[in-house]
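Exam review. A common question shows you a sequence with its structure tokens and asks you to describe the fold in words. Practice with the pair below. Do the first one on your own.
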Amino acid sequence: MAVEVADAIPFADDTEDSAYDVEAARSFFIYLIHANRVLIEFGSTFTAEPVRCTSSGERSISR
């Protein structure tokens, strides 16, 4: 039961406002598929190395 809402209705008992926009759900699902492909393609090859700036402004890679 949600405590953030004063008059929370359990999910199983909620029968009001049950409109479902099929096209919006399908569009969102397609967006998630594309985002997943991008993250798989570019996320696995990205390796970041921490860079520290010294007091003189020079950058040094810490290992």
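Now try the second one, then compare your answer with the model answer below.
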Amino acid sequence: MRIVKVGTKEQLMRFVRFPWKIYPKDSPWVPPLISDFAGVLSKDKNPFWMHAKSQLFLAYDDNGNINGRIAAIIDYNYIVFQDDKCGFFGFFECFDDIETAKALFSAVKTWLKEHSIDKFIGPMNPSTNDECGFLLEGFDIPPSLMMTYTPKYYLRLAEESGLKKIKELYAYDMDIKEDSRISRLERVAAAAKKKLPTLEIKTMQKDSFEMDLKAAISIYNSAWRKNWGFVPWSDEEFAALASRLKIFIEPRMVIIAMISGSPVGMLIAFPDYNQVLRKLNGKLFPFGIFKFLYYKKRINSLRLMVMGVIKEYRHKGIEVGMYEKGLKNALKIGYKHCELSWVLDDNIMTQRTAEMMNGKVYKKYAIYGTELNEEVRIIDSRDHIGGKCYDYWNKNKICAHNTRRLIFLIKVWQFISRFENRGTFN
């Protein structure tokens, strides 16, 4: 087996197309559009690489077949904002072979060490603002738009390669239907409107797309800045993402909260176009476009991807006002389900909000990581603390104290001290 750095267009396309070898046709995995995925990796098309660098790796067996792939990634914006010399691994795909997995992770470690990085986490594809995590629970359910799907054995490969789980991300499933939530949300939203008379909850308008986009950038970078792993989106990154997702946007599901004309909160839910992408097998042309147009009309679920309010206006009912408008619009359009994802395992407030909306955790994802310092080899270990002085339960079920050696040493020390001034025994 050999690990090769991707350096040619042919190798890049092999990197892009490799997942089709991992997932059978009946897998819940949703193939990405090949052109879209290649654009994510492109240094010319993706503005993320203006402040980041990467190295892609392929693992070949002795017969020249590809057994796995991985990327080593450094996001300098993350390092500066988080004050943490942490790199990422991403785009990991591998057959169930521990030697291949270890070799791929080792290649990432070596490359990151060469760039003076102290540790790494992942998978980030390629950043915390994109798809991330190994699937931890929910292996029989297809992923929603911009969420990952990975085989269960990836968890074992990561752990046997020396990585440890450091974070969990939750996905909630919520039914969209007429129920008691509507009246409850209406009451809270009405109370918020009384307290904040200049509050306006509006939906995105096609003729104000650029202005609403700027508002979304401002709110996101303010509302999420204290979250784990957060990195501010640059104007170029957000614009590129919006351009990439523009065909997926349903304007009635982009909710913006305004106070005196200034944006203070937003809620963005995308139709789950993965229901369409499953039918395309990575290709939009020449015939995929007809499938796209046909199946997009049959999408029946959403992914609530972004919801936040800037700090000074939180807990004033604005979040509820946005939920109310979003739920009513979803009912009018005809959606049946909504996934709220992802939610951090320690984000108690968002978890409570999801539960208030009758949401239930139905998928979990895991972030893994490891330090890049020199490994420590353990040459001796014991099942107790205290060195030679410790308690244990003997065969008669009596708690005994193993202090005989210590007492012997003290007696010897005391005896020698009679003839030499050796001080006290500590």
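Model answer, second protein: The mean pLDDT is 89. The chain has 14 helices and 17 strands. Full marks require stating both points clearly.
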